[in-house]
Queue: 2 jobs
Job 1
Amino acid sequence: MKKILLLGGTAGLLALCGCYTPTVNSVENTPTVGQRQFITDRRVVADADLAKSVALVKLNTATTPDDLLQVQVELHNGTWSLARFAYRFEWFDAQGMQVDNVLSATIASQIEGGEDKFISGIAPHPGCKDFRVKFIKTK
Amino acid sequence: MKKLILLPVLALGTVLLGLGCGTNAHYVATGGRENIVSTGEINIQDYLQAAEDSTKSLLASGALNRVPNPPAVVGVGRIINNTSQQIDTDLLTKKIRVALLQSGKAITSTTYGLGGQGEDPLAQQMQQQDKTAQRIPDFSLSGKIIQTLARAGDTHQATYSFQLSLTDRQGLAVWEGEKEITKQGKRASVGF
C-alpha cells in the first residue's frame, strides 16, 4: 500500500513538474480603433489535430503604400498545450498563375495553449492578387 | 543445429538493420521541414526566414517610395559578421536584392561599393566610359549578424540576430529591421 502511494505521489509530482505548460490570458482595448477588412476564405483540413491547435480564426487584408497586398491571419490554439508549426505563403497573379518568389520561406513558429496569434505575409509583387497559406505540424 | 539456423538469421537481421537505419542521399526542398537544424551554425532556412522578414518589413514601410525617380537605387554596404562562423553575407543580401527587384520597388547598383569597388568591375568600367549613365544610389543597405550563445547542462541555445539598416544620402536610417532566430537543442536534427 505504501509503495502504491509513493509511486502515485512521485508520478503526480513528475506530472506537475514536467507536463505543465502555461496557457495565455490576454486583455485588449474595446472598442478597437483599427477596423480590419475581413475576407471570406476556403479551408482544406487534412490534419484535424493541427486544425485544433492552430485553428484559423479570421483573415484580413490591406494594401501597403507600395500597392502590395498584405495578408494577416488570426490563429487560435484551442488546446491547453504549446503547438509548434510551420507556415508558408504562396502568391498568385490575376490569371491565377503562381508567382515565383525567392522568399517563399517556410517559417517555423509556435503558439501557446489558448493563445491568439497573428501571422502576416506581403505579396512579392503588385501583380499578386490571390494567396494561399499552408500549415504543417512540426516537432 | 540451432546455431546453424541462428547465424544466418542474425546476419540477415544485421544487414537489414544497416539498410534500414542509413539514409541514402536524396533531394529536399531548400528551407523546407526536412532541412537539418543545428544550434551551432546558421542554417539555410535561417537566412531565408531573415531575408523574408526583412523584405516584408522594408516593403511595408514604404521607405523605398520616397525617392524622386522611382524605382529606388540601393547600394549594398557592409554586413558585419559577428558570429563565430565564417559566412557569406550574400546568402542574406542576395535574397533581399532579388525580392526587391521582383517587387519593382528597387534596383541594386553593382557598380557602387565600399572603397569605390563595385561587385562587377566590368560594369564599373563601362559606366566610367559613359558618364551620363551614372546614377548614385538613393540608399545604402548595411547591417550586422550577431550570435548569442547560452547553455544549460547538455542543452545549447543560439540566437542569431539579423540587423539591417537602409540609409539615405543624408545619412539618415529611413528603415531598420531586426530578425532574431533562436534555436535550442542537444544536437543537430532533421526538420523544424
Job 2
Amino acid sequence: MRIARFYQKTLFGVFALMGLILVSTSVIYVHTVDRQLTDYFLTSSRAIARAIANSDSDLIINQNYPALQSVIDQYVEIPGVSYVYVVDGQGTIIAHTFVPGVPDEIAADYRSEAETYDRTLAGLGSFSEVTEGIIGGEAGRVHVGMDKGYFALQVQTAIGKVVYLLTIIFVVSVLATYGLMYQVSRPLHLLGRYAWHSLSGEKHAPPAPGQLEPLLERVDEVGELGRLIRRAKNEGV
Amino acid sequence: MRSGAPLKAAIGSGRRSITAGAGEWGRATLQIKLKLTPVLALSLLALGTLFGHPALAQQDNSGVSQKEIRLGMSADFSASARALSIELYRGAMAYLIQRNQAGGVNGRHITIAAYDDRYQPDLAIRNTLRLMKENVFALFSYVGTPTMIRTLPLLRMRQGDHFLLFFPFTGADASRIPPYDAFSFNLRASYDQETQGLVDHFIAARHKRIAIFYQADAYGRTGWAGLRKALAQHGLEIAGEATYRRGSPFDQSYDGQVAIMQRVAPEAIICVGTYPACAGFVRDLRDRDVAVPVATISFVGSDAMLKLLAQAEQKAGKDYTSRLVSSQVVPSYQDISLPVVRDYRAAMDRYRYDIMPPEALLYPSGKTPETEYTPLPYSFISFEGYLNARMFVAILERMGESPSRAKLAPAALALGDIDLGLGQTFSLGGVTGRRQASDQVYYTVIKGGQFVPLADAEWEAWLKR
C-alpha cells in the first residue's frame, strides 16, 4: 500500500507531532502524578504520626506501652506504612513494629528532632520516615516509615496505565492517518499512471477500466483532472 | 456419646436464648394488638401476662435461665495459640461437667459458649458482640493480650449491661489498672509479677545481662515493659531484644533473632511469646550452640512447648530442653499432695473425651492428620482452666438462687479469701477491693521430659549446670 511521495513528508510530520504530544503529555503526567502521589503518601504518613502523637499521648505519659503497641499495630496494616516506632522523652524506643528487631540504621540515628528522614535499611528497602512530636516533642516523637518501593510502584502503576492508553491512541491514530492518506493519494497515483500512459508516449500500464471510470465520474478536483487528461489525450496534445 | 454430650451440643451452637424468644413474643403481641379489635387484643394481652410471664421469668436480661447459666469465651481454637485455648477450655469443662452432673449451682447447669478468634483482635471483638447479643452471663477465660486489650473498651461501652470478663488467660496490666480494671477479675498473677520474679532470680545468681525475645504486639510489649521495669529496680537496662510476628510457626527459621542474641551476648533470655515461636527460637538458639539459660512466662504454654522441643530433640539428637526455666501462675499439676490437683487429675481422666471443644471450632477448614490436635492428659494451662471454673462457681454459689449480671461484681468482691485446696488462698475483694485472686508465681524446669518445681534455693545451682 503505497502513498504518494509528496504526502509522505506530511505523514511523517503528523507522526512526529503525535509522538511529541505523546511524549510531552507522558512526561508532564509522570511528573505531576509522581509529585502528587508522593505528596499524598507523605501527607498520609504525617497524618498518621500526628494522630498517634496527639491521641495517644496519655498512653505514653502513663507508660501504658501495651496499649500504645496495640494502637501502632493497627497503623501498619495501612498499605504503604512499613513501620511505626515511638520514642519517649528520654530517647528510648518504647514501642515499635520491627521484626526481628530495630534495624541498626535506625538504632544509630533516631534521636534527632528531624521531621523527615530518608532511610535505606539493609535488606528492607528505602523509606521516607516522617516524625511528629508528642506534646510538642517534650514526651517524645512518633516515627512513621513509608515504603518508597510501595509508592514508587503505585506511581508506576498509575503512569503505566496512562502511557498504555496514550500508546494505544497513538498507534490507532497512526493507522487511521495512514489509511486516510492512502485514500487521498491513491486516486492521484492512478491518475498519474493514466497521464503517463495517455500523454507520454512511453510504455506505461494504464489503470484498469474499473479503477479509472469511477475517477473520471467524480465531481471533485480528481474528476476534473482525470477528465482534463482524457481531453488532452483525445485532442492529441 | 458420653455423659457430657448434651452439654457439648449446646456449646458454641450460637442458638438463640430464651430472652430472644421473649422479644419475638413481644413483637408478635404488638402486631396482633394492631390488627385485632382492642377487646380481643386486651384479652390476648391478659393471656400473655398469665402464660407468657413464666417464660419471661425463665430468663431476664441477666443471662440466666432457670436451668442454665451461660458463659461466653472467645479464644484461638484454630491458629497459632490453639493449644492454650483448647487446654484452658478442657480444664474448665472438666470441672463444669463434674459440677453439672452433681446438679450444677442451685439447679442450674453452667455452660460455655465458645467462639474462635484465631488470636486476632478484630475477631475477638466480633465474638464478644455476638456473645453479648446472646446475652451470656459473663465473659470467661478469654485467651490473649492483644485480643483482650481490644475487647475491654467494649465492656466499658456496655457497662450498663454489667458484662464482666472473668479470669482471662493473660497477665497483661490492661485488665488490672484503670480504666478497665472495673470490668474484669483475674485469677492469675500478672506478667509484671512473673518477669519481676525471673529477673530477681537471675540477678541473684549474677546473671545481669538479660535480653528479651518477644511477640511484636501488645502481649510482647507487656512483657518487655515488665522486664524493663524489673531491671530498672536493679539499676539495669534490657541488654537486647528480638521480636517475631504473631502467628509465627515452629517450623519457621528464627536465625535472624538468634543472630541478634549472639551479637548481644546476654547472660539470660526471657521469652514472651507463644509456644510455637518460643520453641522454634530455642531450637535455633541451641542449634547455633548458644547455651544461655532461657526463661518463658506462663502464657507461652510450657507443656505445648516441651512437646514440640522433645520431638525436635528426637529428630536432631540435640539437647533443647535442659537450660529452660518456666514461670507458672499455678502450682505443678504433678504435685498430688495438693487436694485440688488430685481433683483436677481425676476430672481430666474421667472426662477426657467429653471436654474437647466442638470440632467446628477446632477445624474450620476440615480435620486433617496435620491439623488434628492431640490433647494433653494434664497441663499447667488446663489446670488453670480448671481453677478458673472452680473459682467462678465459688462466686456463683454466693449469689444465691437469683443470680444476675448486676450482682456479679459485688458477689466476686465479697468472696474474700478462699482455699480451693491449693495450699494457698485466693483472695478477691477485701479492704483493697482486690480483683486479682493470686500473686503467686512458681518456677519449673524440665527433668526427665517433664516439668518439675524449681525452688528458690535451687536457682543458682541450676544456672551453674
